[in-house]
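Slide 14.
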Amino acid sequence: MAIEAVIFDFGGVLTSSPFEAFTRFETERGLPADIIRRTNAANHLENAWARFERAEVDIETFDELFAGESRALGAEVRGRDVLPLLQGDLRPEMVEALKRIKAQFKTGCITNNLPANAIGSMTGRSLYVAEVMVLFDHVIESAKIGLRKPDRRIYQLMVETLKVDPGKCVYLDDLGVNLKPAREMGMTTIKVTSGAQAIVELEAATGLTLA
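Slide 15: predicted structure.
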C-alpha cells in the first residue's frame, strides 16, 4: 500500500498529553482519581466539553455545565479550572518527524480545540505554534467548523480537501475513540502513547527514517 498523506491530531500527539496535568490537579485538590477524564468521557458526543469544542456554548456556560456533570460523578470541578491544564509541551521529536514526512507526503491536522478566546493567552490559539502549523497542507479545527472528532464528517472533509484516498492515509491520535472512524474509512491508524512509540510506528507505516 502506497501512503500519500499523514494526518495528525495535535494535543497529545505533537504535544505531551494533558492527562498528566489532570492527575496532578486531582491529587493536589484531593479529588477522586480520573474525575476530569470520566467527566469528559460521559455522554462524550453531547457533554459540556463536546459542545464547547463545537463552539456551541460560551465559557461561562461551559464552566457551569462541566461543574454539574462532574458533580454527578462524585465531585465538582469547575470547567474554568480545567482549561489551563490543557497546555502541553511540544514534542520536538514529533515536530522533526512531521518535517520529514512533509517532504514526502501530504500532511493534515484534525484537532478538537476550543474557541480562540476561550482560555486566554496561555492556551487556545496560541497553543498552535506557527512554525508547526505551517507544516500542514490543511488544518481542521473543531471550534471553527462546528464539527468535532469522532464525527466521521470531519475525517471525510480532510481527505476530500487533500484529494487522497482514505486507504492511502495514516492517522495519528492519542484517543482510541477518535481513531475508530478513521480506521473504518480504511486509514492506517496509530494510537500515540509517547513520541518514541509514535515514531517507530510511523516509520513502519511510511518507510521513512524519522529519528
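Speaker note: Strands lie at 5-8, 106-111, 138-141, 169-173, 188-191.
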